[in-house]
Q: What sequence folds into this?
């Protein structure tokens, strides 16, 4: 597990969602608290991602057989504005979401047990996993750029189910996991 991941509860403002939206005073969220939600983090050396033995080990241990790289920037991502809007819609997946930030910055917002938003700031070297069934969303920060490796067990699954998606077994499993932790 990594160090240096910053997370906090966010305000309910609808202003530019690329801003940090920290509460005043800030209410930080620890890695331990994130782990109780099923969110895990490693800090790796993104400069050597192509040959990194630590990344290879994680992929082997977790069964992350598929990998691709996405660059989210206006000039590289087709339908950039549309995609960003879609990523920021609250949704869940039937599989874990695994992202490794190779460059730039991004925010992952996840819901806690009381349905409050927690913002997780990721930067170069952060590998983060969000469990299947957790409601979440994604946005860039004001730098408007990130390059990320997307990892999957087996083939890639891009299907997002926007909230409400409470009828899925995976959502029920996730809620049971929350009750137990």
A:
């Amino acid at each position: 597990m990594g160090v240096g991941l910053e997370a906090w509860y966010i305000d309910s403002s609808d202003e530019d969602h690329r801003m940090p939206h920290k509460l005043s005073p800030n209410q930080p969220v620890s890695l331990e608290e994130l782990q109780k939600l099923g969110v895990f983090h490693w800090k790796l050396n993104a400069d050597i991602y192509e040959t990194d033995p630590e990344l290879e080990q994680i992929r082997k241990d977790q069964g992350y057989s598929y990998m691709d790289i996405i660059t989210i920037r206006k000039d590289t991502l087709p339908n950039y504005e549309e995609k960003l809007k879609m990523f920021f819609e609250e949704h869940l997946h039937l599989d874990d979401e695994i992202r490794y930030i190779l460059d730039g910055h991004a925010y992952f917002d996840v819901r806690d047990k009381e349905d409050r938003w927690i913002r997780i700031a990721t930067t170069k070297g952060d590998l983060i996993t969000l469990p299947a069934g957790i409601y979440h969303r994604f946005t860039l920060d004001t730098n408007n750029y990130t390059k990320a490796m997307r990892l999957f067990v087996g083939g890639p699954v891009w299907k997002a189910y926007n909230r409400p998606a409470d009828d899925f077994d995976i959502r029920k499993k996730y809620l049971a996991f929350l009750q137990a932790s």
Q: What stands out?
A: Helices lie at 31-36, 53-62, 80-88, 169-180. The chain has a mean pLDDT of 96. The domain at 6-12+19-180 is CATH 2.60.120.10 (Jelly Rolls).
